[in-house]
Amino acid sequence: MTYIVLAIAILGYLLIIFESPFKINKTITAILTGSLCWVFFALFHEGDQQLLSEKLSGHFGEIAGLLIFLLGAMTIVELIDLHKGFSVITHRIRTKSVLKLLWIVGIVTFFMSALLDNLATAIIMITLLKKLMPKGEVRMTLAGIVVIAANAGGAFSPIGDVTTTLLWIGGQVSASGIVKILFVPSVFVILVPLIIASYRMNGFAVLRVQLSMAEVKQEERMKGSLSVLLAGAFGLVMVPVIKSITGLPPFIGVLIALGFVALVSIIYHREKSQSEKDLFSVAHALSKVDISSILYFMGILLMVYALQDTQILSTFADFLLESLPNIDTMIVSIGVLSSIVDNGSLVAATQAMFPLTDYPIDDSLWEFIALCAGTGGSMLIIGSAAGIAVMEKEKISFMWYLKKITPLAVAGYIAGIVAFLALNWLTH
Length: 428
What we know:
Helix content: over 70%
Low-confidence stretches: 209-220
Distance between the termini: 44 Å
Shape: globular
Largest sheet: none
Strand content: under 5%
Number of helices: 23
Order of helices and strands: HHHHHHHHHHHHHHHHHHHHHHH
Mean pLDDT: 85
Number of strands: 0
């Protein structure tokens, strides 16, 4: 039975990795893989099938909490976008210096990603860059910086990246703990690439701004854009606060935040006709959410729980610990692997490998995993959701990114690891 479940999982993972040549959507593969793992687990299970069914129901309760959290957070982001709330920030970036723009884009992306999520932030910043300048080497380099900054910003925030969200909801890290420990290493992850990239920008002194000030003012006049942005930002910041005060799952806080943002939206559009109101409704925002990615994580987590309950992951963890020099080497390797394999599924697997009884909440193991898995994906353009979004929107080739941006991302990854290990050594 163990070998059958493992074979299904490996086959499914290979199909996910080679999604493009096989032309099979990874969401479909993940759902089938996760479901089939449990079917064959049940067919060959020698114990009480009723208990196995109850165990699966318990696992799915945890999965459902994560999915509702992701759905709520993504809907809030879409509501803000419908009101052009992000233009309040992005259209104030008006410098004509390429060097200044490099640092502004990097810093704004870093902090915005921590507040929202790396995927949404990457899309917002690429849209801005397209308005600011024509396609060329400078814009593509800035797009690469957006990928690194978005992943770095998401790594120290419990709501900034699916990896940290998984660890936070799973009880491996606390919101305050991960921010306190990973903020400085995450800064180094983006700071080093920015410094290196600055030398490349010396030949580009002046930027030709394409977006006219009339267009900027017109977009900023959208009614309620600032209020909805502030409501969304406040609501998302309050999510970890609500969890820490009440002890309730994070999806409760997200639902409260979503209701709050929707209420602010309704106040601004209550005098309009129903057809106009519908354009700014939760239902319309929900139609823009990437439901496919949510279903993908559902399938992946089902598979991971099946591998956990068949003891496959614990056996694999023991093998890695015996084969590699130490646990830090293993985590660094996971970060490198996350540039090829989805980082969310890797983190979900490590959660099942290492029990909380041995590695309690806010253990340095979990914090190091969050840093490496969250930022390692920047080393290849296919290694993160932010990277894939930038690749599709900016039409950046895999090889161009490998040549121009990967060295920057590797330098940042190493700098972040060194900073984390140094701080960990100093505080212990």
